[in-house]
Specification:
Elements: H1 2-21, H2 26-44, H3 52-82, H4 87-107, H5 113-132, H6 140-182
Amino acid sequence: MIWLIAILFTLLGLGCIMLVIMQLPGTWLMLILGLGAQLLIVYALDVTEHQSYGWWALGIGLVVAILGEIAEALAGAVGTKAGGGTKRGMVGAFIGGIAGAISASFLIPIPVLGTLIGAIVGTFIGAVIGETTGPKPKSMQGSIKPAMGASLGRILGTTIKMICAMIVWTVVSAGLIMIAIYG
């Protein structure tokens, strides 16, 4: 039964990685699934020996997930700032990225790819809007460099977050498999 739980988590965890690519909280869902698997093993199956593998794996996974969220959030802001953008441009990039991911999921009917393209394009458009409006607006030409920086930051942030999700998946899967082997 422990093997079934470990294999099921491993398969569902792969789906959670796809959610991260779609700009959804797949890493957090994966940790919740891992916690559920760990609790099921410990309390329903009454496995007390070697259960610490799962708890350690979840703890490490939590730290990596937090680092992934921080990296994703900072990457867009750093990209905008590196391009000479303002706080208004950073906020516009953030809002535009979310709006783009949601709208492109419906407008570009290619799973995962549509959402990712929408997030990048939305980040660019949001940064341009943020830079060209407000009390000290930049020209359209002056807003292009910060918008490009924001889009590149979004790509970098999503890549880092996806790598973190893959690390969480590997660590938690390994922890559950260790329990199955030694439990």
